[in-house]
Write the structure tokens for this entry.
Amino acid sequence: MELSDRKTKILEAIIKNYLETGEPVGSRTISKYEDMNLSSATIRNEMSDLEEMGYILQPHTSAGRIPSDKGYRFYVDRMMADREKEVSDMHEMVVQKADQLSELLKQVARLLASNTNYAAMISAPQIHRNKLKFIQLSKVEENTILAVIVVEGNILKNKMISTDQPLDDDTILKLNLLLNTHLNGLSLEEINLGLITLMKEQAGIHSDVVGSVIDAVADAIRADENLEIYTSGANNIFKYPELADNSKASEIINVLEEKNQLSELVSDSLSKLNEGEESQGHGIQVYIGSESPFDSMKDCSVVTATYELEEGMRGMMSIIGPKRMDYLKVAKTLKTLQEQLDTLYKKKEE
Amino acid sequence: MELSDRKTKILEAIIKNYLETGEPVGSRTISKYEDMNLSSATIRNEMSDLEEMGYILQPHTSAGRIPSDKGYRFYVDRMMADREKEVSDMHEMVVQKADQLSELLKQVARLLASNTNYAAMISAPQIHRNKLKFIQLSKVEENTILAVIVVEGNILKNKMISTDQPLDDDTILKLNLLLNTHLNGLSLEEINLGLITLMKEQAGIHSDVVGSVIDAVADAIRADENLEIYTSGANNIFKYPELADNSKASEIINVLEEKNQLSELVSDSLSKLNEGEESQGHGIQVYIGSESPFDSMKDCSVVTATYELEEGMRGMMSIIGPKRMDYLKVAKTLKTLQEQLDTLYKKKEE
DNA sequence: ATTAGCACTCGATTTTAATGAGTGCTAACA
DNA sequence: TGTTAGCACTCATTAAAATCGAGTGCTAAT
């Protein structure tokens, strides 16, 4: 069967109404719309077709219709297409510059949640081009030295290293030189066993220090493993009765708190974006119900967007809410913040 | 009225039963206990007295009795007193050493939550004796230098500083020397305006760099402001019907997620502990219902314990659950982890 | 092709009744 | 005088029944 213009119009009306009310919508309701000069009976017939086509469904016999995942998908795709419709009732939403990256991210998460009334999360940016830039050893205590490792993108890693014997300043200077001359500018792959052995040899009795430093370097470069994620507005889900029931709420809260599933989502979303699926504009992805990469979100929709803070430093933010979320507003909010983060970066550049 | 032995026994029986069932307990139930050779009528009379004295209350006429906050308090104090009763059915609860402090804390939070079936939180340790130990400037890029600041207790703070003109290695060395000779060993109070001005003068055209570094030092020393807190097991609250109702759950989840109230709790609890109120053994504090420092926890009990990771690095962990929580087990669990963290520290020392 | 009309369905809400755990009080008892 | 059996009463909870009404599908008329 074809999706006629009229069917489209009716489907859209159903979804819009359901988004607002959260209640199944009946034929009568639709027929009362001004620009819909049809009787409820006609609407019923069309609805019956739409149901057969899989766009809507009945929670039970003799109830109104609600959108199916397919129906939502139709709506979202359509909405994304004509995005010229600007939503203008945006809250004040200004990202303050923060000297701590973590503070900035927390702030953004909070903004997202409070503006949308859904739950929000944001991941710290992941680095892509991970080359070692710089190593600095310094003596902190008699038997303790501090290694500071700087990776491209100015990501830092600190490590305290205890030594058997006290090291004098001169030795530290030498080790510093040794490490920097050998390792600077290298990526993880380029630091091979041969190189490590060579350096250990040259370090003589201090080879254990070199070993520790190299471990720290490895940690610093693949920092994405312990991907930091910040969330906000988890309690917003209680505003939507369809999510507020105990077992569902518990599951969602758990996902938001334990974060490990979220980090999968981040990887998934980032990699999809990198594959160049930018067709849907500005890298905004929508997962509706069962489209989500994991089960625990099957009653929710997740809208994700990437952001780029500095060259190559990409992170992801997302909104988690009921399927009947206000997709338009959410997309708009995400986009606004995307732009703001972008601007913030540019300012920094100057 | 006096709390006779018999009243005490009955009160304890009521509370114990309520902790298990979560239901109001009636006179008949108590009278059936083997070691309680009294008829339900007698129990009723005693209960009536206990209610008058404020230890128990009726949710409504003709319902059984439940403990009041005062009743819980009585029970907890008593329980804390004879703590020789060891609970032995502890889960495997071994803290793995982690090189990242944050990983360690997350792990502990998770252990607490999974062992108790309540929500858990832990704060990163706060430093008390905050003296500057060491500053290291290094050049990272042409116009960027990195300042690493080490404070007593080996807390680190990094800051990237952009400069107007490029700095040569020699200048950096000089600034390093300048900063370290003047500032080492000083606390926040001791770094006064006079000293700062003096240093800026000596730095000549590079006074702005000195300024930036001093800012970073200030940040590092009062690091307690952005006190990190980790939570786990928030969804456990759904296991207790009296907390699982939407508005209450929402409030609790919110507190756990937004953390700022928790950090007040941390300060409160740490300062109380520092005042030497160690009478209740091992620094374990119990807040029952309205005893809690904030309203949002009025339906919960909060049990807190401090831990000490290294000399002077004290943090706080706590369990948040229903008033009818298993106080004994919770106290035991906290104590076990306290000890483990302690051991971990000692191992590190060797 | 559209629509008015009508019987029918079924979740939700309200009403009513039944249940039973628990109380307070009184009078009898040791 | 403290303890207890007995009884009338209360009231949340549960179950069952009745009612409501939004919504449907189908049919016959336009």
Observations:
- DSSP finds twelve helices and ten strands in chain A.
